[in-house]
Amino acid sequence: MNTATDPMNVINAADRIRVLATIDPDDPLLRAELDALAEDTAQRTGMPTSMASLVLGMAQHAAGSYGLTGILALAGGTPIEWALCARTVTSGKPYIIPDATRHPVESRNPLVTMGGLRAYAGYPATVAGHVVGAICVLTDTPHHFTDDQLTTLHQAADSMTDILQRHRDGK
């Protein structure tokens, strides 16, 4: 693989990791704000599950969530290889999948084959110029995302960015 386009180079970029290191994912105040954001995002989009994730070097951490069940809830995240939010981070763009069972890459993802994930939409959250995570909604049924739902996700990503920046700055 060309190292310039290797997604792991983006995930493990030193500057991005330094920014992540300034965010305490175990801060209960941060968790409360991101949980509230995830709940609001799920309700506004009409989706059963939402997650505000931080994408670390080897794992995706659910820094805030609403409606998570099963392995995602128990583990509080996923290995990086399973993390759809990691694809949002590496591209720096929204990642939308109406039916993961028909997706050329995600159809083999254990979250799909064993976890029942069917539809996903995620938007990147950027802090200090680096994409550090994503806000997403997901469901166990195929779903065509509307323009209104995607606008709501974009707004939620902006809110997540603001929350992370505020906590990073100690405010």
Strand content: 15-25%
- Segments where pLDDT lies below 50 for 5+ residues? 1-5
Mean pLDDT: 90
* Alpha-beta classification: alpha+beta
Give the CA-based shape: globular
Characterize the largest beta sheet: strand count, sense, and whether it forms a barrel: 6 strands, antiparallel
The ordered H/E elements are HHHEEHEHEHEEH
Gap from first CA to last CA: 42 Å
Number of strands: 6
**Structural Rg:** 15 Å
Count of DSSP H/I helices: 7
Task: Indicate the percent of residues in helices.
Answer: 40-55%
What does this protein structure show overall?
With 171 residues, the protein is α+β, with helices and mostly antiparallel strands. Helix content is 42%, strand content 23%. It has 7 helices and 6 strands; from the N terminus they run H-H-H-E-E-H-E-H-E-H-E-E-H. It has helices at 7-11, 14-21, 28-45, 70-75, 84-91, 110-113, 147-168, and strands at residues 49-55, 59-66, 77-79, 95-97, 119-127, 130-139. It has a 6-stranded antiparallel beta sheet, with helices on both faces. A hairpin with a 2-residue loop joins strand 5 and strand 6 (130-139). The longest helix is centred in the C-terminal third of the chain and has 22 residues, at 147-168. The termini are far apart. Mean pLDDT is 90; it is low at 1-5.
